Amino acid sequence: MRKDYLFTPGPTPIPPAVAAALARPIIHHRTPGYRALFSQVTSDLKTVFQTKHPLFTFTASGTGAMESAVVNLLSPDDGAIVVNSGKFGERWLKLCQRYGVQVVECSVPYGQTVDPETIREALHGNRSTPKHTTPKRITAVFTTLCETSTGVVHDIRAIGELVHASDAVLVVDAISGLGADELKTDAWHCDVVIAGSQKGLMLPPGLAFVSVSPKAWKVTEHVRTPRYYFDWHAYQRALAEEDTPFTPAIGLVVALAEALRLLQAEGWAHVLERHARLAKATREAVTALGLQLFAERPSNAVTAICVPTGVEGKKIVSRLRDVYGVTIAGGQGELDGKIIRLAHLGYMERFDALVAIAALEMVLGELGFPIARGKGVAEAERHLIEGHA
Amino acid sequence: MRKDYLFTPGPTPIPPAVAAALARPIIHHRTPGYRALFSQVTSDLKTVFQTKHPLFTFTASGTGAMESAVVNLLSPDDGAIVVNSGKFGERWLKLCQRYGVQVVECSVPYGQTVDPETIREALHGNRSTPKHTTPKRITAVFTTLCETSTGVVHDIRAIGELVHASDAVLVVDAISGLGADELKTDAWHCDVVIAGSQKGLMLPPGLAFVSVSPKAWKVTEHVRTPRYYFDWHAYQRALAEEDTPFTPAIGLVVALAEALRLLQAEGWAHVLERHARLAKATREAVTALGLQLFAERPSNAVTAICVPTGVEGKKIVSRLRDVYGVTIAGGQGELDGKIIRLAHLGYMERFDALVAIAALEMVLGELGFPIARGKGVAEAERHLIEGHA
């Protein structure tokens, strides 16, 4: 008998009620029943995003929604600032380059957070990257909320203030952060916010979302980059009929209605508090074990931990998975083998966090790290006892 | 107590084993277990497509995979022939136009099939459409297998012969046809074939597939249209690691493995025969009732029926749905109210076809059409009795 545990920053575990919704008989999407359900889902998602502006649902991975932001906001040779602090910052960079956008890169070493001041400089044209000339005008600033590959959360509020004061629009990849790290889309002047289904929303992957402010909408009206499947204007027209322009992943939308019901029953503020608490307990536990945190400004979605000297990072991941049935994430790209990542994202509560820490204690000990067994769990328990703030 | 019946040409009903697979705990995609499963699915899909060439899986609606063909095969100002016989032919047209492709349209009135001879003329430059100049060279020919909006199936075998003898590549939208209408991808020289999950493959919508011949691959190497999420080269590189470049709709891929298992257990030849038989029974029943078929060359995926004079077409659809729990499709665009469409696609057997015909008899009678109740069912029974060829 083996039970599997999933502690990756996407996909995240599916609650039983959502799994049951996925198994329901499929319904047709051009029907009054589906339209009403889709309208409700869109409205509930706006509450989650904390926005009053249009929100579109794509059948795609998060990257599809990211591409939609590039092709709807930028023509070739337009200027953009990209905050690059890891693999998903790099994705913005690649997307912009692929579409001929002139990029000013604000990059920081992996594990660090971006200093908003560097974005201010870039907006004022006082910053150019070696390989690029400074574009005449910055149309958009691309950043991540939580950079999933390093576990860093950026100060979106501060960045929002800066960009708001300029002509540029702010685009936030909140795919892994939404639901774990606070994000007030409208209040923080985030013009475009992107999310995915397989993270804080507790669904399988397959849906991606994007909210668009009036400032961003205005920008789209003059963009010459051709687009079809990801054309925001087609989705906006379809919204008028409570619909999407192309056949949606109906089963996932039906299950999303169920997931949103669960999140609303808990209350959005409580959802964020729960993630903050699980993340804090995990960080304190890991530190008590003598391990080092990797992120300078850690996200509440995922905790990145430096692999201690003398231990093979990839072995931690494979042994946890193959022997114990516990799936965590390793490092990506140049961080492969150097960090491990424990998510506490989505359908997660205190005992999930404890299982992750216990499993880590067991395997680190086996791999020769001088572990004080139970010390991490004990520290986490202190933070997870009912009533502890 | 109400049971719902779904007779639309996508989505189609989900078999219980596939529904159960959708409800399984989610697994991570960058694991040996998922990679092995995805490899098996890709290999089984190639058997279904009857191709030995690479096959890519997108998390998207079918339209996303259609767009992928346009952006991977054509640069702006390249020439293409589009077979336009309904809504999905029009989609090829719109996609090509959006990307600045010079289109020669081979259009036929709704309900008719394209004469392959017109494609031969267009390939030889002897055909131009009023609004367009004839492009210098035709790079690709776009067509549908089954034009879902009219129920017509095109003679892909004949078209394949013609295109094979030219420098152009043939792109076939087989989204609704695959599994119901015969399609031999390699033997019929179909360079690119597109399918979706929510039709003959008996899954919810959310996955789309594309197979690519060496001839088509060669074309992609010089294409300048920018692309990222739908870039075939990224999917080809990922296939080497039994993977996709972006997070896939994991739950749908897991369920697809189950659906393919069911189809293989039945045998692909039997799957096609079953659809042929259900379609024939439906056509004969409908004709026996005094109704007219709309498609000149009818597909085995969906039967389009002309709404008889004096009956309100939209009322047939809404009354079946709202009173009887039976969802069928009406006409789209200019066919709205003029035809109704009964699908016999995917997880469908004889009694499903009989339910659809009985429901139609009941509602047509209620709406004032002089129906001989039971006559359609009787005719269908004759074709569906065990042993009847």
Could you explain how this protein is built, in words?
Chain A is of the alpha/beta class. Chain A folds into 2 domains: 124 residues, Aspartate Aminotransferase, domain 1, CATH 3.90.1150; 249 residues, Type I PLP-dependent aspartate aminotransferase-like (Major domain) (Aspartate Aminotransferase, domain 2). Helix content of chain A is 41%, strand content 15%. In chain A, strands 2-10-9-8-5-3-4 form a 7-stranded mixed beta sheet, with helices on both faces. In chain A, a hairpin with an 8-residue loop joins β13 and β14. In chain A, α2 packs across α9, α5 packs parallel to α6 and α12 packs antiparallel against α13. The two termini of chain A are 37 Å apart. Chains A and B meet through α1, α3, α4 and α9 of A and α1, α3, α4 and α9 of B.
Q: Helical content of chain A, roughly?
A: 40-55%
Task: Please report the two chains with the greatest interface, counting residues with C-beta closer than 8 angstroms to the partner's C-beta.
Answer: A-B, 51 and 51 residues
Strand order of the largest sheet of chain A: 2-10-9-8-5-3-4
Number of strands of chain A: 14
Unreliable parts of chain A: none
What's this, in brief?
The structure is a homodimer of 389-residue chains. Chain A has 389 residues and is an alpha/beta fold. Chain A has helices at 16-22, 32-49, 62-73, 87-98, 116-123, 156-164, 214-220, 232-239, 250-266, 268-288, 313-324, 350-366, 375-384, and strands at residues 5-6, 55-59, 79-84, 102-107, 138-144, 146-147, 152-153, 169-173, 192-196, 207-212, 302-306, 326-327, 329-330, 339-343.
